[in-house]
Amino acid sequence: MSTTTTGWPGLSRPAGSVTLTRTSGIGLGLTMTWFSLLVLIPLAAVIVTATEGGWTNFWSAITNEQTSRAIVLTLLAATAVTVVNVFMGTAIAWVLVRDRFWGRSALDVLIDIPFALPTIVAGLVLLSLYGNDSPLGINVANTSWSVYLAFLFVTLPFIVRMVQPVLESLDLDIEEAAASLGASRFTTFRRIILPSLAPAIAAGATLSFARGVGEYGSLVLLSGNLPFESEVASVRILGAIENDNPAAAASVATLLLVVSLLVIVALDVIQRRVARRD
Amino acid sequence: MIDTIVAPPEPSAPTRQRRARKGPVTYLVRLLVVAYLFLLVAWPVSLVVTHTFENGLDALRTLFEDPDIVHAMRLTVVAAVVATVINTVFGVSVSLLLVRTEFPGKRVLSALLDLPLAISPIVVGLALVLVYGGRGGWFGPTLESWGLQIIFSTPGIILATAFVALPLVIREVVPVLGEVGIEQEQAAQSLGANGWQTFWRITLPGIRWAIVYGVVLTLARSLGEFGAVKVVSGNILGETRTATLAVEESYLNFNQEGAYAIAFLLASVSVACIIVVSILRARAAGH
Q: Membrane-crossing residues (chain A) (predicted)?
């Protein structure tokens, strides 16, 4: 209502941005209240609960033998899977954009399935091919390999979906020019295409890493959550909650939160760098 | 660059031919990608479908005869719909604020809004319990003395669902809102439309499809949430057990057929959602 009182927006400011009017001020207040109640205050509660007992309690919760093994497995698997995704995700995006063959659009839909499937269903899906009665004779259930497999499945779309639009928008003329100047296809890829894809790959990789570190649902049925073998950080948090030990749960959760925050910061930096280049 | 000096720019026809140039590497990469996706996604997913229909429609029929399962599915749908409505209203408002206004802390807010995508669902559940739990939570005991139980009850399930799906609408709407620009809104205002009219007649139609994508994706995510809901719901049979929790429970109780049947239902809904979105997107790109 009061927007008209501000006069002509866009005259003195960059187009599209207006200082707060009364309506948008109320809107900002309401949305920030909801965001605080839903996200910020609960996350703050995790950090406060973790630090209430002091540094020594926090540290002993994290370095508990079983917990530290779970954290190491989680970080190791998330890193390894992210490395695989960097190569496979880029290759998949490449095939989807540049290659032409029958059934390619079906592949495009397949990529979204890990995003869309409920995580518990994802675990069941993997169990049907790589579990006890595997038609392939490969049984990873209840081993640490199941963690790698589940991470590969749930993180599949991240890099593909980041790289795909960038690859589509690339100018083929530059590659042609490189080729006409005698560059091999590999050189063209490394020197011309890869630098344009790098920010998208990096953004996808950070998201994929974060998703892996926090994964829970797809592991429940698949990994068996065996201590010292296939137990991940999220499972340890849940265990602590169920044993009525919120301080220990919050300590491990804070560690995961720090990882998430680092990922968000990394993403922000990457996005800003790309925006500046444009 | 030298190309353009030596010869005039070619017409656009050769683009297709250039793409058609294929070496052995092309076929190798294609084979690798197809095999990878077949083994990781296509084959396992198809097995769930065949497991579900091993005995014809029996598995699905037993499902709908079990009152606890029907209750779980109803609860899942209710929580998902309410969370989607909340996230849509919140998402559109936040997107408008982010794109159309300036305020201090905007950059921090826009980065924080992505946080739910990067947080473990178990941490989400724990965070909500620490604040809204009836025993020792920050606000929980007070709210319960007013008769409002959140944790181990439906409101908690809705909160958890809304949390994990929070950024989906915003991520769809923000880029479109930026693209649409404000010229039309200014024109409407100069012709005497008030803020509300401008929003309903100009802004909303412009971002209509982005909202639809966001809603469909939010709904798919909400129906399938498991970890966060597991922590806050208490998984009480016939009360706070949702469909995804019922999959776990059935499987662990050696009712594999039942687990596959519920999983199949959930998977069909979510796959239908992504197919709808990709068809709509393809159509929008075609225009």
A: 26-50, 70-97, 109-131, 143-160, 248-270
Residues A124, B274: C-beta atoms closer than 8 Å: no
- Please name every residue paired with B101 in a beta bridge, in sequence order, or none if there are none: A18
Which residues on chain A are in Cβ contact (under 8 Å) with B123? 46, 214, 234, 237, 253, 256-257, 260
pLDDT attached to residue A267: 83
What pLDDT, on the 0 to 100 scale, is given for residue B203?
86
CA angle in degrees (0–180, nearest 5) for B126-B129-B131: 115
> Does A177 sit within 8 Å of B3, measured CB to CB?
yes
User: How far is the C-alpha of A155 from the C-alpha of B80, rounded, in Å?
Assistant: 23
- The whole-angstrom separation of Cα B90 and Cα B82 is 12
Q: Which tens digits make up the pLDDT trace of A152-211?
A: 999 999 999 999 989 888 888 888 888 888 888 788 888 888 888 888 999 899 989 999
User: In this complex, do A267 and B114 lie within 8 Å of one another by their Cβ atoms?
Assistant: yes
Distances (CA, A) of A140 to A70, A91, A231, B45: 18, 26, 14, 17
Q: pLDDT of A9-29, one tens digit each?
A: 333 344 444 556 777 888 889
Q: Phi first, then psi: what are they for B102, rounded to 5°? A: -115, 130
Asked if the C-beta of A210 comes within 8 angstroms of chain B's C-beta atoms, the answer is: yes
What single string gives the DSSP state of each residue in B96-163? HHHHHEE-TTHHHHHHHTTHHHHS-HHHHHHHHHHHH-TTT-SSHHHHHHTT---TTSHHHHHHHHHH
pLDDT for B244-274, tens place per residue? Answer: 999 998 988 988 888 989 999 998 988 888 8
Enumerate domains of chain B plus CATH numbers: 58-286 (1.10.3720.10)
Residues 60-79, chain B: which have Cβ within 8 Å of A?
A: none
Q: Are residues B182 and A9, on separate chains, in Cβ contact within 8 Å?
A: yes
Instruction: Tell me A231's DSSP state.
Output: -
Nearest CA in chain A to B26: A99
Angstroms from B269 CA to nearest CA on chain A? 9
Structure confidence by residue, pLDDT tens digits, B6-44: 333 444 444 444 444 567 888 899 999 999 999 999 999
Q: Which residue of A has its CA nearest to B162?
A: A38
Q: What pTM, to 2 d.p., does this model score? A: 0.85
Task: Answer yes or no: is pLDDT of A88 > 90.
Answer: yes
Distance CA B277, CA B214 (A): 9
Residue A77 CA to residue A232 CA, distance in Å, equals 10
Where is pLDDT greater, at B239 or A40?
A40
Taking the Cβ of residue A242 and every Cβ of chain B, the question of whether any pair is shorter than 8 Å is answered with no
CA pair distance A10, B119, nearest whole angstrom:
38
Q: Do A88 and B3 touch (CB under 8 A)?
A: no
Q: Are B94 and B217 in contact (CB under 8 A)?
A: no
Residues of B (205-264) whose Cβ lies below 8 Å from A: 220, 223-227, 230-231, 244, 247-248, 251-252, 259-260, 263
Q: Is A43 part of the contact surface with chain B (CB cutoff 8 Å)?
A: yes
Average pLDDT, chain B: 85
